[in-house]
Amino acid sequence: MVKRLGTTLLVVWGAVTLIFLLIRLAPGDPALVMLGPTATAEQLATLRTRLGLDEPLASQYLIFLGDLLRFDFGTSIRLGKPAMDAVLERLPATIELTVWATIFSVGLGIPLGTLAGRRPGGAMDRTISSLALFGKSLPGFWLGVILILIFARQLRWLPSFGTGSFAHVVLPALTMTLPFMAIVVRLTRSTVVDTLREPFVQTAYAKGLTERQVMSDHVVRNSLLPVVTMTGLQLTTLVGGAVITETVFAWPGIGSLLVDSVAGRDYSVVQAIAIVVALMVVLINLLTDLLYARLDPRIRLGGQQ
C-alpha cells in the first residue's frame, strides 16, 4: 500500500506538470483573453504581474509547486473565488453523473452479457452482440444531441439540460451509459463463453447442480475479474468523457467548468481540476486492485499467490 501511495503521488505530480506546461505553451496571451481587446497596456502588464506570467517558465513552475505543497491552488480570475472551491462545488454533479452511468452500464451489461454467453451462436447471442456493437459505435456528442431531439423536443418526456431531479440525470447518464454498457456486454459474453469450457464447470454439472446454480456460483463469479478490470479503466474514461456530455446537456459539473476555464485561460481552475481528476483516477485504480483480492483470494497485492 505504501508503494502504491508513492506511485499515486508520482502520477499526480506528472499530471499537474503536464497540465502546467500545456496551458502555458498554448498560443495566445492569457491576460488579453481575460481582459478583452479593449484592455490597455498598463492593465495587461498589471494582470501579467499578478498572475506571475512575467516570470520565466522555470520560475513559474517552482512557484506553482510551492503553492501546491501548501495546498494553495490560487484564485480564479474569472469567478473571483478560490480555484479549488469552484472545483469542489461542481465535483458532486460529475460524481453523480458518473455513478449513475456506471450503475446502468454494469447493472444491465453483466446480465445481458451472461445471457448472450450462455448459448454462443444462438439467436439471443447474435441479437445482444449486434446491439452491443451498435451501441459501441455511437459517438457521445452525436448520441446526446439525438436523445435531446427525441425525448426532450419531440416526446417532451425528459428535460434536456440542468439538474435538480432524477429526470435530469436520465439523458446525460444514458449518453455515457450506452458505449460503456456495450463494452461490458461484449467482455462479459466473451469471459462467460471461455469459463463455460473450463473443466470445473463440467464437474459442477456432474455433481447435479442446476444450470442456474452453475451460472451464478461458478461461471459468473469467475468471469467478473476481467470485467472489474475493464470497469475500473472505463470509470476513468467516464470522468474524462464527462466534458463532452456535460457541455451538451449543460450539466453543472467539472467537465463544463473545464471547458469554460480553458476558453478563458483560467490557469488556477484548470490546474485544480487536473489535480482532482488525477486523484480520482489513481483512487479508482487502487480500489480496483483491492477488489481483485476480494473476487479472487489467490491474488495478493504483495505480488504473491
How does the overall form come out from the CA principal axes? Answer: elongated
CATH uppermost class of the largest domain? Mainly Alpha
Question: What does the radius of gyration come to?
Answer: 24 Å
* End-to-end separation: 17 Å
The helix fraction, in percent, is: over 70%
CATH architecture of the largest domain: Orthogonal Bundle
CATH superfamily of the largest domain: MetI-like
Average pLDDT: 79
CATH topology of the largest domain: MetI-like fold
Low-confidence stretches: none
Main sheet summary = none
Total helical segments: 12
Structural class call reads: mainly alpha
- Total strands: the figure is 0
How many separate domains make up the residues?
2
Please describe the structure with a list of short key phrases separated by commas or semicolons.
305 residues, mainly alpha
Description of the structure:
The chain is mainly α and 305 residues long. The protein has 2 domains: 2-69; 89-295, MetI-like (MetI-like fold), CATH 1.10.3720.10. It contains 12 helices and no strands. Helix 9 packs across helix 10 (211-248). The longest helix has 38 residues, at 211-248.
Task: Summarize the SSE layout with pairings.
Layout: H1 2-25, H2 30-35, H3 41-51, H4 57-69, H5 83-118, H6 123-136, H7 140-154, H8 166-196, H9 199-206, H10 211-248, H11 254-263, H12 267-295
Task: Please summarize what this structure is.
Helices cover 77% and strands 0% of the residues. The protein has 305 residues and is mainly α.
